[in-house]
Amino acid sequence: MNILITGGAGYIGSTVAWMFIDRGHKVTIIDNLKNGNLSNIPKKSKFIKSDIANIKKLEKNLDKKYDVVLHFAALIDNQESLIKKKEYLKNNFYKSKIFFQFCLKRGIRKFIFSSSAAVYGNSNTIVNEKSKTEPLAPYGLSKLKFENFLRKLDHKIDYVILRYFNVVGAEKKLRCGFKIKKNKSIFGNLCQAFFNNKIFHIYGKNFSTYDGTSVRDYIYISDLSEVHYNFAKKILKTKLRLTLNCGYGKGYSVLSIIQKLNLLKKKKIKYYFKPQRKNDIEYSVANTKKLEKYFQFKNLKSKLEIMINSSLLWYKKNKIN
Predict the structure, then answer these.
(1) CA-CA distance, 242 to 222, in Å (whole number)?
(2) What's the distance, Cα to Cα, between the start and end of the chain in Å?
(3) Structural domain boundaries, residue 68
(4) Which of 14, 113, 171, 272 would bridge 176 by S-S if both were Cys, CB 3.0 to 4.6 A apart?
(5) Where residue 182 falls among pLDDT bands split at 50, 70, 90?
(6) Quick one: pLDDT at residue 237?
């Protein structure tokens, strides 16, 4: 396969890029490095430093033909999007439209889109792909708007929309990870607290959850990469117009994650409660029955331990302060 990846210097995009390269496929990466890190990009890939809407530059540097486009490029900070609404809609929606229209003109018809569980907004129960979509912030709205744009093109294209829940951990060879600008992930912050003896901040303790802290469905980055790889192969052989939740269908609270890390490493992380953030989602867990028709995850019982350990190993290797 000849694969085109946008946002391939980011956490998820680079991990997926490595998986394709490891299996002998050709990969071209587009990234403006606004959020991504150059060190994440596989050396065997072709790298184009460019905004996805810079069509003139892309025309000069891209190959004539690509089998599948995997679109990861986006601004990703939910809280920041509340302050920079116009910037998020411009980058994640309008620029993505420009890029996809360019792809269509070049005859590309197969797409995998990196969406988010943020499209659902708040829920007190597990959500499936038909659940109501009510994004609480412009980040989730920008993802939902682009999903709808793709569906309007479904007579012209094949697509798989993957709604990620919380993606964590590091790939097995630790070649890339969450070394990106503005990384505010819970596991990144936990690693920082663990290695640097810093206090971990928990935002909110009065959510309507079993221990008062927010609950999330976490998925291991390597599993999510396998999902992308398998759907890239499938979409070449058959027509696909799918929207799928990507999680394990199990929720963990912030406190339970801390307790699990403490148990695994026999070290107590100090934490401090801070006020709940505006428009924070309190409960986000996926119904994964639809995904399971196409893909079966292995060793689910040990995933949380794998996600924690791989994060700590990657963080220690990269010596991030």
Answers:
(1) 21
(2) 38
(3) 2-168+217-246
(4) 14
(5) low
(6) 94
